[in-house]
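Friendly challenge for the regulars: who can give me the structure tokens for this chain first? No prize, just bragging rights.
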Amino acid sequence: MCVVKPLIPRAVHGGDEPAAPGGSAPGGRLEQRLEHLLAATGDAVLLLSSSGEILDVSAQAVSLYGLARADLVGKSILALRRPDTREEGSQQLRRCLEDGEIVFETVHLTAGGRELPVRVSARRIDDGGRALVQSIIHPLSAREAAEEELGETGRLAALGAVSAGLAHEIASPLASLGTNVGLLLDAIEALPPGLADLDEARAAARDALAGAVHLQEIAAAVRGMVQGHHPSPRAVDVRAEIERAVRLTRHQVAARARLELAIAPALPLVEGYGHELGQVFLNLLVNAAQAFPAGAPPDANRVLVRATASAGEVVVEVRDTGPGIPPALLPRIFEPFVTTKAEGTGLGLPISARIVARSGGAIEATNAPEGGAIFTVRLPSARTIR
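First reply, four minutes later:
Bragging rights claimed.
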């Protein structure tokens, strides 16, 4: 990487009167809201109960899936997914109900079992105390997918050329920086311990050296990707990579927010690309810090990093209490050059998404109902991949 009176006008149903769950029908305000939505979009719309039952569908959905309305209503939304993705579908439904909205891509099944790649924009609707889910289904046709890939390929090819030159140009200064900081650290380490000022300088020098080494690794990785050299995946300690990202960004985050960590004590290893995954967590921490304006009281803001293990995967969540992601940008937030910041490049999240995908995982962005953005990274454990 969501929708019990009919939300679709009767004229769309062709005269059928859909039955509402429990024999009752929701109020007209919700129906009017969906009528407006259907007038503004050509996409298919599904209305779901909180358990995932399809309660109503638009005419576009009937056409998209090639099934009669009667064959869709009453069916579980999971029945439209491949069996191997249904557990993931259950998790996405839960997250939509918890977080308020979610956007993801998956594969649905149409009449005859034909696979259909789709982008799903799901939003929770509160109707008289009931939680419903409104799902807008946008089919990703082969032509559209190819056009999007070609457009992105052209821009990324140009970016690749620039990145290769940049990686080459910064390699020597970085090597010099690393050497000099290393010499500084050696000199500090030779001094007597216990001096408060020197202890602080020692810690700062260690962080500076770690940052220089990290930048050298990034530059080498960029050169390797441009030249077509890809390292073999290996077992990665997610906790260690998170802690490293926290060390490298702690001053930047502390200047704008309180950082809270909730990392499970025994996380399984995942299979991936080591410090590349660390770069994902670093990017997400920097984004979370930048969600708050410079000069804002840090104690009023919060960044939470949570890592847990569940069902053969490690789940890392980076959440902030900032303004969240504008709804218009949410479906495109992982596309290159899309950014919510005036000074942003729009490259951190697309690069992060590619790194996670190479590791066999997935990354999703949602907005929390109470405000703030949530980025969730799911990585299969090493034993799951093997």
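Residues 174 and 216 are 6 Å apart (CA to CA). The two ends are 23 Å apart (CA to CA). Your move, everyone else.
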